[in-house]
Amino acid sequence: MAKRDAIFPADRHALYDVHQYSAAIRSGDLLFVSGQVGSREDGTPEPVFEDQVRRAFANLRAVLAAAGATFDDVIDVTSFHTDPQTQFDRMLAVRATEIGDPPYPAWTAVGVTWLAGFDFEIKVIARVPAAANATAGKG
C-alpha cells in the first residue's frame, strides 16, 4: 500500500494532534478533507454558532490551500449539524458568502447528536488542480 500523502495547513490547529487525524489525504488528483469544525487554534470551539460556521469554512479553506486547491475545486460536501432545525437557515446565510457561484458542489447535510463540543462540521472531496499535482512532493 502506498504511503498516505497527508496535507496540513501551515497554521495546523491542536485538534489534529489531540484526535490523531490528518487534515486531508491526497490520492492522485483527489483530496479527501477531514471534517473541519469551527475551532480556534487551541482546539476550542467558537461560542457563537455563525462564527463557528465561518471558522469551519476558514479552516477548510486553509486545508484546501495547503493542497493547492480552492472551494471551486470541491466536488462533494457533507455537513453535520447538531440542531438542524434551528441552525440550518443561519448556516445557509454563512454558506452563501463562502461557496461562490454555481455550479455548486454536491452537498449532503446530516443531523447528528454529537460533534465533540461543536455544532457544525464540514468535510469535502476536491479534485486538486493539475498544476498543484505537478508540484506535489517538491519543495
TrEMBL record:
| Alphabetical list of CDD domains matching this protein | YjgH_like
> In the record, what terms sit under GO molecular function?
deaminase activity
Provide the Gene Ontology terms for cellular component: cytosol
Record protein name field:
Enamine deaminase RidA
